[in-house]
Amino acid sequence: MHFEQVLGLLRERAIAFVPQKPAPYAGRLRAVTRAHDPGRLVDALLCSALIEARSCERFALLVADVRDPALRDFYAGLHAAESRHHRVYVELAASLVSRAAVVARYRELAACEAEILASTRLAPRMHAGALA
Known about the structure:
single chain, Ferritin, 5 helices
C-alpha cells in the first residue's frame, strides 16, 4: 500500500519512477540469522524489526526537515507505520520465546547491524540502507 502511495505522489509531481538496484544491507543482516527454528524465525522477525527501526529513523528526519506540508504529512504517516511494524515484529518474536531471549538476541543482531552499517557506504534510501 505504501509503495502505491509513493507511486501516486510521483505521478502527481510528474516524477518518473526509477527502480533502484537493491542494496546488500538487509541480505547481510539476514545472513547472521540462525539456521534452525525457533531461532531462525525469531531472528527473521528481529531483523525485520531492525530494518523497520532504521526506516522509522529516516522518516523522522524527513518529517523534521521537509518543508512541503503534504510530503511532511505523508512522511509522518509512514513514520507511524514503520514504528508500528517494528513493534509488531518484536511482539511476534516474543510470542515464540521469552521476552528476555528476545531482548538478548535483539541486542546481538543490533550489534551485527551496527558493524554492517559501519562497513558500508550509506545511501539516501528508506529500506535498502547501505550500498555495497
